[in-house]
Sequence to fold (711 residues):
Amino acid sequence: MSKFYLTTAIDYVNNRPHLGTAYEKVAADVIARYQRLCGVPTRFVMGNDEHSQNVYQRAQELGIEPLAFCDRMEAEFRDVWQRLDISFDDFIRTTQPRHREAVTRLVSRIAEAGDLYEGDYEGWYCVSCESFKPEKDLVDGRCPIHQREPEWLKEKNHFFRLSRYRKPLLDHYAANPHFLEPEIRRNEILRLLEAGVEDISMSRAGQLWGIPLPANPASVVYVWADALINYASAVGYGTDEELFERWWPADLHVIGKDITRFHCVVWPAMLMSAGVPLPRQVFGHGWVHWKGQKMSKSLGTAVDPLEAAERLGPDPLRLYLTREIAFGQDGDFTWDRFEERYNVDLANNLGNLVSRLASMARRYRQGRLVSPAAPPGPLAEAAAAAVADYRRAMDAFALHRGVAAAFDVVDRANEFITASEPWVLARDPERAADLDRCLYDVGEAVRIAALLLTPFMPGSCREVLRRVGETRDAGALQLDRDAVWAAPPGAERTVQAGDALWPRIEPGKPAPGGAAAPKRTDPATRLSPTLVRDSGAGRAARAAVPDEEQSVPTRERSAVTREGRESMSEDERPGRAAEAPPATEPAAAEAKPAPAPPEAGTARISFDEFMKVDLRVGRVVQAEAVPKSKKLLRLEIEADGVRQVIAGLARAYSPEALVGRHVVFVANLEPARLMGLESNGMVLAAVDANGEPVLLAVDDPARASAGARVR
Ligand code: MSP
Fold:
């Protein structure tokens, strides 16, 4: 393919974008950026649909000219798209002269083909859909999408002979099995065509706001016919033949599933009638839901995309939308899930990998990594397989699978670090080449993962690439040439350290960096149903705990805890401390209420005695359950190197929730063995009323990073 012309639906401008409309733009942007990464000349067009009655009414309410209102809204839309890093090449507005020219030309061609005739329309019309509604499509007399009562219209209109194109459309679908994706949408449209289609109104009488119908300038072109033509006018139909030759037909229209009938029946029929080639493909994506309903301003279920982007950053939002929602299907947005995915994918996984690499590179090789003569390790093969999966997925617009393939590389690199134990290699000068191999390969894996993730998280990946020593501009990188393992002997990279890219957040609390917390109706709505029934005090206390840790409400949880304690294995019982001396027990191993503070003067220690305890900040780089133990977790904590600590945190923290987190621990305890594993230190935690551990947090890990002394 010599070019890729991609469009999204153009938005009604009576309201600002919400997360549902933004989702479409983000997904299309990922596709556009992927095409560019593949080296395909790409034109990505978005825009605004301005001739809607709602827009006109809104402007009237505000007492301003409709065009002035649209100008104002254009600025708002552009601002949102810019903040979400949407890389469109052109932005079309249906009030622009180039569009009016194109509409006039295309509708005239349809009239010349004998496909326009005058008639009477009488029936329902939903202003929110801007669509004529057959009685059978209404539910309890309302539009099922907007849940509002339609208006009854009776007017003289010009009709388009859509029925004439039923057979040519069916033939087109048969000859082009991928014309409409995903398959479920194609089947819907085929059923509709098979059942037969009626001619549709192509004009609206008595409207002032719109493009005059060439055959009868007293009416305007029906807003959907007007809007669909934007795809052609944006590349010069009727105004710039050369541009049109270069880019038409469109390679892909990305639209929501509610408007496939317009795009996959009406629009191709209009083009057939006007003698213009058809777009190659249409993708009808699913809806973003909020609490089980389509996200929509008119339904009152809209989330502000800027609020979400400001909460955790535009890239985490882009990642959430494309990873969490299978492209083509519906999916939910919840603040909890957004925060959880941020912590899991970014803070704990990719972000942690980037900082682990930077800190090991600095510690063991002063930041400079050199590929040794030995052949690359297993990561090279894993990355090649992931790149192939990624390409297959992205070529099929399975964006969620594409991003998952990229994260496979991240997972494999994290696993590889754990398996290769570079901190052990570093202690043995004879294994210097193994350490070089390990570090260089991890750097290479991070580079490839970041390259694959660039369409999803452009800004962050640029920074990740810079940190792993990529000196070329991210925009100049190409998938074919650069997503290839490149570790010839002697190759060098300089790894840059930096602040945590995605500091872990405590769900429900303001995000790091002072970003404003989202406005939420009630913290209770963010909890699982079992928790909402719980007492107010308990609710407030748990609002800061991630979902995965909230699966058992406190009351039940404490019951489980007591029960669990009674059924503790020999190894887990506090009495088992014979194996681990009291001083070396992991935090919260002693699961009983906190003892009363000693009376003043009775158990005081001297400053010198206190100073013997070496307290440090450590970052958890790896965490997993200790087999057969309900309470213990095996942690790898990075401070002055990486050490293993066995900690009694499992009842209150999942391993996943700990990775990437900064903790305070006693660094100079004698080693102890717990459940057969050596523990080198003790993580500090407070103990709650149920005897469960509550970890101490480090206020600013950027300033007190792993290894910092605590006094
Ligand atoms: N103006 C028409 C489209 C004309 S295209 C020639 C329109 N505008 S819209 O503002 O209502 O919607 C713009 C796009 O956002 C549509 O593709 C629509 O399906 C999509 N979405 C609107 N709400 C959405 C969700 N809740 N979730 C996902 N997409 C959503 O329709």
